[in-house]
Amino acid sequence: MITAKGYAAQTAESPLTPWQFERRELGAHDVQIEILYCGVCHTDIHLTRNEWFEGIFPMVPGHEIVGRISALGAHATKFSIGGLGGVSIFKPR
């Protein structure tokens, strides 16, 4: 498992606080990114407060991630360690 850190809402009523959690091991097609910047927008705040639908808690908001590639799966051949990587994981309905 990979140890990760973030700021999480433990419930819809709680503020964001530091939280440590475990991620699964890197898969063959995965790219691991050391996060340098992450955007938290108004949508994220609505989600942490259950204002649109019931969320899954603890919840780490943020969906616009930029960082340096720190590890590659065996089949992630279009990337290089030390290069920049970005992820947008927001999926509109």
Textual characterization of the structure:
The protein is mainly beta. It contains one helix and five strands, in the order βββαββ. The strands form two sheets. It has a three-stranded antiparallel sheet, with no helix packed on it. The longest helix has 7 residues, at 42-48. A hairpin with a 6-residue loop joins strand 1 and strand 2 (16-23).
Task: Give the secondary structure arrangement, pairings included.
Layout: E1 2-9, E2 16-23, E3 31-39, H1 42-48, E4 64-72, E5 84-88
Antiparallel strand pairs: 1-2, 3-4, 4-5
Briefly characterize the structure:
The chain is mainly β and 93 residues long.
Terminal Cα separation, in Å?
Answer: 31 Å
> What can be said about the biggest beta sheet?
3 strands, antiparallel
Number of strands: 5
Strand content: 35-45%
**What is the residue-averaged pLDDT?**
92
- Tally the helices: 1
Amount of helix: under 10%
- Low-confidence regions: none
Overall shape: it is: elongated
Rg over C-alpha atoms, rounded to the nearest angstrom: 15 Å
Encode the helix/strand succession as letters.
Answer: EEEHEE
Task: Provide the structure class.
Answer: mainly beta
Provide the spatial order of strands within the biggest beta sheet.
3-4-5
